[in-house]
């Protein structure tokens, strides 16, 4: 019986492939039958899922071209490795230079210097002592056992060069460490978005809503919220546009610019005729091929550093006919209490089946109960000639 079922599925697939379907119809059929397993462009934690290939220059060259940004963005274990390696490498380079200074003056032990010989660096007679003197010079330890003499200009030149190089290396890594600790993405981790987006009514209009919160007590100044709908579109001529971007405007009751981000906010996008969600419905939303990317830009009040928080929602993460539970209340002590246990919780509400039917020009507002059709829905038609009303059960 299982073999028969497999043969039936193969026959259906073969019949489907033999049909003269267009590319858009084939994509629509595949999305309905098997669902869309879309790969995110932006992960939920804000990272970009991008891989570069066949570049003109190698990836290593691109990273080394901007060494500062590379050092700031690499992981901590890589940073520690390069930090230690840079000092050891510089010590070893100057070890060879000090060894050359001693060799050129005949100070090394195997050169058998005379008893009244004056060395360029006292007590520097082999590679080990040259390495120790290099470390002492660059770190300004100054034990005093190995001392430079004023008789060799080459020794004075190497001494000054190593001091300058050591200062540059120390200042560079100090700056990298401070910049890495104060990265804006550390501030962005305190901002969280809701796991789901919902579609429900907001001020007598259908809207897509998300919730965002800043768990730090310090504010994000000049906050701005906006979105991009990234989708794959096939034109009637058969051209496929991958990663087409459409602007999505988000706002709160007071507007969309300079949000007062003192408590969790519910951001909403009005689904009107200009919205890409206008032609979608409760039964077609899950079949769409798009990714909604939401951006939040702001400036940290404590560090004055700009940051951007990103997240994305797939069609399976947008639920129709639900609204977020309230989380802000006033306590007995006169303070505003925020209940984060309800941050991601939603509840069903009566919502229109689709935005198109809600904005019908004839005024036929079709409401649904929790995203499903109402069994007792009636359409009322008005005859302008004889003013007779007729009720038609659907």
Automatic annotation (TrEMBL):
<keyword id="KW-0812">Transmembrane</keyword>
<dbReference type="InterPro" id="IPR013518">
    <property type="entry name" value="K_chnl_inward-rec_Kir_cyto"/>
</dbReference>
<dbReference type="GO" id="GO:0034765">
    <property type="term" value="P:regulation of monoatomic ion transmembrane transport"/>
</dbReference>
<keyword id="KW-0407">Ion channel</keyword>
<keyword id="KW-0851">Voltage-gated channel</keyword>
<feature type="transmembrane region" description="Helical">
    <location>
        <begin position="155"/>
        <end position="179"/>
    </location>
</feature>
<protein>
    <recommendedName>
        <fullName>ATP-sensitive inward rectifier potassium channel 1</fullName>
    </recommendedName>
</protein>
<dbReference type="InterPro" id="IPR003268">
    <property type="entry name" value="K_chnl_inward-rec_Kir1.1"/>
</dbReference>
<feature type="domain" description="Inward rectifier potassium channel C-terminal">
    <location>
        <begin position="191"/>
        <end position="359"/>
    </location>
</feature>
<dbReference type="InterPro" id="IPR016449">
    <property type="entry name" value="K_chnl_inward-rec_Kir"/>
</dbReference>
<dbReference type="InterPro" id="IPR041647">
    <property type="entry name" value="IRK_C"/>
</dbReference>
<dbReference type="GO" id="GO:0015272">
    <property type="term" value="F:ATP-activated inward rectifier potassium channel activity"/>
</dbReference>
<dbReference type="Pfam" id="PF17655">
    <property type="entry name" value="IRK_C"/>
</dbReference>
<keyword id="KW-0406">Ion transport</keyword>
<dbReference type="InterPro" id="IPR014756">
    <property type="entry name" value="Ig_E-set"/>
</dbReference>
<feature type="transmembrane region" description="Helical">
    <location>
        <begin position="81"/>
        <end position="101"/>
    </location>
</feature>
<keyword id="KW-0813">Transport</keyword>
<comment type="similarity">
    <text>Belongs to the inward rectifier-type potassium channel (TC 1.A.2.1) family.</text>
</comment>
<keyword id="KW-0472">Membrane</keyword>
<dbReference type="GO" id="GO:0007399">
    <property type="term" value="P:nervous system development"/>
</dbReference>
<keyword id="KW-0630">Potassium</keyword>
<dbReference type="Pfam" id="PF01007">
    <property type="entry name" value="IRK"/>
</dbReference>
<keyword id="KW-1133">Transmembrane helix</keyword>
<dbReference type="GO" id="GO:1990573">
    <property type="term" value="P:potassium ion import across plasma membrane"/>
</dbReference>
<dbReference type="GO" id="GO:0005886">
    <property type="term" value="C:plasma membrane"/>
</dbReference>
<feature type="domain" description="Potassium channel inwardly rectifying transmembrane">
    <location>
        <begin position="42"/>
        <end position="184"/>
    </location>
</feature>
<dbReference type="InterPro" id="IPR040445">
    <property type="entry name" value="Kir_TM"/>
</dbReference>
<keyword id="KW-0633">Potassium transport</keyword>
<dbReference type="GO" id="GO:0034702">
    <property type="term" value="C:monoatomic ion channel complex"/>
</dbReference>
């Amino acid at each position: 019986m299982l073999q028969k079922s497999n043969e039936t599925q193969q026959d259906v697939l073969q019949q489907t492939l033999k049909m003269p379907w267009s590319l858009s119809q084939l994509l629509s059929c595949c999305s309905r039958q098997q669902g869309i397993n879309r790969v995110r462009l932006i992960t939920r934690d804000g990272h970009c899922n991008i891989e570069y290939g066949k570049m003109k220059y190698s990836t290593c060259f691109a990273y080394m071209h901007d060494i500062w940004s590379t050092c700031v963005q690499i992981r901590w274990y890589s940073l520690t490795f390069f930090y230690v390696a840079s000092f050891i490498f510089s010590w070893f380079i100057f070890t060879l230079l000090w060894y050359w200074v001693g060799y050129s003056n005949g100070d090394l032990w195997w050169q058998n210097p005379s008893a009244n010989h004056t060395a360029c660096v006292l007590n520097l007679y082999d590679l080990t002592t040259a390495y120790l003197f290099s470390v002492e010079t660059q770190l300004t330890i100054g034990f005093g056992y190995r001392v430079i003499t004023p008789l060799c200009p080459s020794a004075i030149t190497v001494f000054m060069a190593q001091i300058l190089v050591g200062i540059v290396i120390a200042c560079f890594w100090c700056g990298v460490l401070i910049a890495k600790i104060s990265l804006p993405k550390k501030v962005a981790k305190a901002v969280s978005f809701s796991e789901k987006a919902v579609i429900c009514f907001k001020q007598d209009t259908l809207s897509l809503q998300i919730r965002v919160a800043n768990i730090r007590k310090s504010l994000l100044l000049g906050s701005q919220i906006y979105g991009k709908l990234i989708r794959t579109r096939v034109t009637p001529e058969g051209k496929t546009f991958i990663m087409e971007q459409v602007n999505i405007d988000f706002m709160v009751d007071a507007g969309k610019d300079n949000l007062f981000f003192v408590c969790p906010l519910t951001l909403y996008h009005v689904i009107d005729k200009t919205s890409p969600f206008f032609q979608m419905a409760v039964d077609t939303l899950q079949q769409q091929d798009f990714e909604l990317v939401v951006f939040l830009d702001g400036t940290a009040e404590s560090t004055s550093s700009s940051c951007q928080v990103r997240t994305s929602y797939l069609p399976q993460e947008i639920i129709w006919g639900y609204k977020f539970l309230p989380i802000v209340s006033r306590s007995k002590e006169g303070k505003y209490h925020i209940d984060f246990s309800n941050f991601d919780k939603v509840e069903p509400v009566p919502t229109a089946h689709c935005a198109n039917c809600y904005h019908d020009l004839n005024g036929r507002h079709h409401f649904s109960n929790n995203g499903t059709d109402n069994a007792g829905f009636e359409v009322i038609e008005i005859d302008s000639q004889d003013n007779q009303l007729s009720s038609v059960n659907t």
